[in-house]
Amino acid sequence: MSTEAARIDAFDLVNSLSRIADLMNASVSEHQSRVALMAYALAQELKCSEEETTEIGLAGLIHDIGAFSLQERLDLMSFELQEPGFHARVGYLLLHTFSPFARIAAMVRYHHTPWNHGQGACSDGEPVPMAAHILNLADRVEVAIDRNRYILGQVPALCERIQAGTDEAFHPDVVAAFLRLAKREYFWLEIVSHNLGAVLRKHLRRHTVSLTMEELAEFAQMMCHLVDFKSSFTATHSSGVAAVAQALAARAGFDDREQGLMRTAAYLHDVGKLGIPSEIIEKRGPLSADEQDIMRSHAFYSFEILDSVEGLEQIADWGAMHQERLDGSGYPFHKTAKELSPGARLMAVADIFTALTEDRPYRVGMSKEDAIKSLTRLSAHSQLDPEYVAMLIRDFDDINTARVHAQGAAASHYESFLRAATSA
User: Fold this and answer.
1) 250 has a pLDDT exceeding 70
2) If DSSP codes are grouped into helix, strand and coil, which group holds residue 184?
3) Selection from 181, 273, 246, 207 nearest residue 49 by Cα
4) Do strands 210-212 and 5-9 pair parallel, antiparallel, or not at all (unpaired)?
5) What is the mean pLDDT of residues 173-178?
6) What Å distances lie between residue 172 and 55, 60, 110, 130, 175, CA to CA?
7) How far is residue 55's CA from residue 38's CA, in Å, rounded to a whole number?
8) What is the predicted pLDDT for the residue at 168?
9) Does the structure show a pLDDT above 50 at 307?
């Protein structure tokens, strides 16, 4: 892929990640956005550099990225946390693989570290950035806000609660900055604003930089890991789809840049599943009608998230349309053959092929013979593109080998990740 800048704004990417958490349940909606705005204001009050202030705001937007299930998200909304370190460690392990987020990853890693009379300046022999202590206080203030009461009437009690944690839970300098900000009505009214997204955009977007195509590919791979790590049932799926989609794209005459975009689109095709609670994805046995509806919404969420980022329109089309079918029986848009681009048609074939042939905890992947029968039937019934299906069947062994290799590498990474995440 070319090193030419992809003209993708980092704020848009981070904000799209943040919005995923809002999809799970209304009770956790906008938590990360509110923390981001509060942390940004605290960093400004503490006279942090412009670059660090922006990074603190971005870190706030994704500080809970390591909490995969709805129950985890709800637990984090409690002021007193039972096991605060695990999701922060998971978030760090995911984010630090993307080099532009290295400092943001460190902030996320330590954002529940108590100050503990100065001992919180380090953790496990590593320095804890001041930014993490800013996030810690902002996070605890946000969860203490009663969403059913007018905000300004809560300020005295919120200040008293935070002040009580000075030097034990919270860095005293951050508490002092918070108490100064708390006297300004605008601070609270912005945090609970119905126009919160626009407020964040105004503060954060102007300072972020465009990503190169290589960095965009790195970001997509990080997102792929994030989707796959959400559930052992679907672990490594996106990596398999990426290998198959790129192999098909090469055979179909896509140029090098398009092949790279196809791989990126495949990494991101299931990003909407981050808005589906793990409890549903990992449910053993048939889903209820309501659960099926929730699960089917993932394709629309993928489209909504990707299409909202300027510059990802082609990736959104190729990746988020993977559940559409040529006869209009797919979802969520029920597009027909004439409305589906070649890239979207190819992605649907790659997704189904991978789902049929990969092993999952509850069943073994289909044999070559059975997979070919299923693909041929779907092609004959005008659901999958016959040209791409024929191409895949013709080179079945080579393409399947590429899938197996890619998923094997992803599985090894998955196991290493789990060991690192669960280590004390």
Assistant:
1) yes
2) coil
3) 207
4) antiparallel
5) 98
6) 22, 20, 17, 11, 5
7) 13
8) 96
9) yes
**Counts for the chain of helices (H) and strands (E), in that order:** 22, 4
User: In which element (H, E) is residue 94 found?
Assistant: helix 85-95
Helices (H), 194-277: 196-204, 213-229, 237-251, 256-268
Token digits for 151? 């905000």
Question: pLDDT tens for residues 377-417?
Answer: 999 999 999 999 999 999 999 999 999 999 999 989 888 88
Give 131-189 as a DSSP string: HHHHHHHHHHHHHHS-TTS-GGGGHHHHHHHHHTTBTTTB-HHHHHHHHHHHT-HHHHH
Give the C-alpha separation, 416 to 419, whole Å.
Answer: 5
Instruction: Find the DSSP H helices in 252-367.
Output: 256-268, 278-281, 289-296, 298-307, 313-320, 342-357
Contacts of 83 (CB under 8 A, 6+ apart): none
Placement of tokens 């922060």 in the chain: 88
Tracing tokens 């998200």 back to the chain, one arrives at: 73
211, HSE (Cβ side, Cα atoms, 13 Å) = 23
> Which residue reads 């022999």 in tokens?
125
Question: Among positive and negative, which fits the CA dihedral 207, 211, 216, 222?
Answer: negative
pLDDT at 308: 82
Token pair 């905890």 in the structure block, residue: 361
Distance CA 79, CA 141 (A): 8
Q: pTM of the prediction?
A: 0.83
- Write out the two tokens for 176: 């002092």
Q: Residue 9: beta bridge partners?
A: 210
Judged on CB neighbours under 10 Å (0-12, 13-18, 19+), 91 is buried
Beta carbons within 8 Å of 85's beta carbon, 6+ residues apart = 112
Write the burial class of residue 255 (CB in 10 Å: 0-12 exposed, 13-18 middle, 19+ buried). exposed
